[in-house]
Amino acid sequence: MDNKKLIGDLLHAHGLKKTPIRTEMLALFMDHDFALSASDIVAKMTAGHDRVTIYRALSSFEKHGILHRASEDGQGIKYALCGQHCPDEPHTDKHAHFICDECHQTYCLEDVKVPKANISNEFSVTGVSYTLSGICKQCNR
Amino acid sequence: MDNKKLIGDLLHAHGLKKTPIRTEMLALFMDHDFALSASDIVAKMTAGHDRVTIYRALSSFEKHGILHRASEDGQGIKYALCGQHCPDEPHTDKHAHFICDECHQTYCLEDVKVPKANISNEFSVTGVSYTLSGICKQCNR
DNA sequence: ACATAAAGTGCAACAATGTTGCGTTTATCG
DNA sequence: CGATAAACGCAACATTGTTGCACTTTATGT
Ligand SMILES: [Mn+2]
Ligand SMILES: [Mn+2]
Ligand SMILES: [Zn+2]
Ligand SMILES: [Zn+2]
């Protein structure tokens, strides 16, 4: 697990400081294949850090195109890592997401493309979101 | 505007009581072509009613298939009227929705169908949501 | 019209998410 | 090493949504 190196490079590449908190946060994202909310992170962090710090780091990561919003239901926003090809700024996904009704995890469906919108040109479409729900692969077996 | 009659019938058809608050709420939904949140409703109601009452009415309407969730971003849930053919229970939409980045209104795109999901059968899909964003027809002109 | 039961309402209290301001600490770079 | 900007922690706050409980209103049947 030389994620440590990767994370340092990632932060540095975006002009962000490599602090223990942010390093641990990004390690958490790399260790999970589902999206994480601010409170998920607070719960999984070893030391007890302030919620505000986590919120600000998430915002910063989103602003720099390191994380994207994978889902935002009533219970809050869940983030997931962006791909290496993602632009260095906030952006919408080109892939679909799946929310499990049982375990409430959100998965990125990297290989399911968001369908093209077919809509009256009275509307200017700049973002599209395609979210599936049901029972995930884990809960299904 | 004989919506009054329609509303009475609608409530009665679902075994709900026809109270002034619920009547006014449904009238509000009929008078707008975009979705409304609980706080939108509180603000638009003539008398000052308790938020809790509005929340409970919205839940009841959703449970009976009178309203559906048109969007739920971080700022809350917005509801819109269901079609006449909708089942008498909570259900997911078959149409897309549009969220304006400028006025922040949510519109039902009744004639834009939600694309069929094409996904690994490790996942059991029971719901699909397709949400577009950008600039709406009002803000565009 | 009246009694009754069920549904709806209001108030208080609470939990969770997310924000802002401000003073302090820490990382990075010359 | 010292300066600067970023990051952190704390307190305080706003908003959304929930729950419990007592009270009121609506619908129903006699
Ligand atoms: Mn994703
Ligand atoms: Mn709709
Ligand atoms: Zn699951
Ligand atoms: Zn608009």
UniProtKB/TrEMBL annotation, chains A, B:
The keyword Mitochondrion does not apply. This is Transcriptional repressor. Belongs to the Fur family. Keywords: DNA-binding, Repressor, Transcription, Transcription regulation, Zinc. It comes from the Bacteria. Pfam families: FUR.
